[in-house]
Amino acid sequence: MVNFDRVPSPESRAHFIRTDLTDYGQVVEALSGIDEVHSGVDAVVHLAAIPGATFAPNVATFDNNLVSTFHIFQAAKLFKIHTASTSRPTANSPSPSSPPAAAPRPRRQLRADV
Asked: Reduced to 3 states, what is the DSSP secondary structure of residue 85?
């Protein structure tokens, strides 16, 4: 497991590679293993994001999160890597006092080419 981000997570035991996910070139290099840090990527789980407006202004949050997600999915598509992403960074840590609501069912089947 490899963690690509600007700052390492203090809890992570994964190998860390400093990567600016808003820079498409850095994302492509990171996923391709161009620096021979890893031998390839089987899948990407995208969790990197600014979690909300309390951490940065709305425009900065939107810009960072949208651009980094786009770059990750584009680079993953380039290398035919399976991807997964949460809808928001706090989706994995609900408040204990409020259980998560059930996800609505789609009206039609959605297809992803990634």
From this structure: strand
Q: At what angle do helices 24-32 and 58-78 cross, to 10 degrees?
A: 40
The answer for residues whose C-beta is within 8 angstroms of residue 47's C-beta and 6 or more apart is 85, 86, 89, 92
Taking only the tens of pLDDT, the chain with its 114 residues reads: 888 888 888 888 888 889 999 999 999 999 988 667 777 788 888 887 887 767 888 888 888 889 999 999 999 999 999 888 765 544 444 444 444 444 444 455 445 554
Sign of CA dihedral 19, 24, 26, 29: positive
- Tokens representing 97 are 């006092």
Q: Is 83 exposed, middle or buried (0-12, 13-18, 19+ CB in 10 A)?
A: middle
